[in-house]
Amino acid sequence: MPTTVKEMLAAANAAVPRISAAEAQALAAQPQTVLLDVRDAAEVQASGKAKGALAVSRGLLEFRADPESPLHDAAFDRAKTIIVYCASGGRSALAGKTLKDMGYGDVRNLGGFKDWVEGGGEVENA
Questions:
Q1: Start and end of every Rhodanese domain (predicted)?
Q2: Which of 25, 35, 43, 104 has the most crowded CB, counting CB atoms within 10 A?
Q3: How far is residue 119 from each of residues 1, 26, 59, 111, 123, measured CA to CA in Å?
Q4: Distance between CA 44 and CA 66 in Å, rounded?
Q5: How far apart are CA 76 and CA 74, in angstroms?
Q6: Do residues 28 and 83 lie in contact, with contact meaning Cβ atoms separated by under 8 Å?
């Protein structure tokens, strides 16, 4: 049965709550939170990333998040809150839904990197 991007985004947005930059900053200050940038490496290199964010491109997310994968990143922990962002919010919504499907219980969508910056979040070079 065919699915459109619009339908996929609607399902992702229904499954993963959208939060404000202020909420993201407050959560990111807690040790049980992972701030996750799913933009491509060139995007991160060009603009930097949220301070302390883990940069994992959307294309590698499943491999980095799965503890059984040889490419697993130990920063991924199902007991932690994961806050995902991309450039505008679409990829982060889909990535958040993927993480939920993989057993991550507390996943939030910040939306776009611009939301972080406009909300006064600190930025660091990649």
A1: 29-125
A2: 35
A3: 40, 12, 27, 12, 11
A4: 23
A5: 5
A6: yes
CA 78, CA 104: separation in Å to the nearest integer?
Answer: 5
Q: Give tens-digit pLDDT for 30-48.
A: 999 999 999 999 999 999 9
Q: How far apart are CA 102 and CA 80, in angstroms?
A: 13
Rg from Cα positions in the chain: 14
Give the pLDDT confidence of 57-72 residue by residue, as tens digits.
999 999 999 999 999 9
Which residues make Cβ contacts (< 8 Å) with residue 54, sequence separation at least 6? 34, 35, 36, 37, 73, 75
DSSP state for residue 18 in the 8-state scheme: B
Q: Is 89 left (phi over 0), alpha (psi -120 to 50) or beta?
A: left
d(CA 124, CA 78): 26
Task: Please identify which residue in the block is written with the tokens 């995007």.
Answer: 43
How long a stretch of residues is the chain?
126
Residues facing 54 on adjacent strands: 36
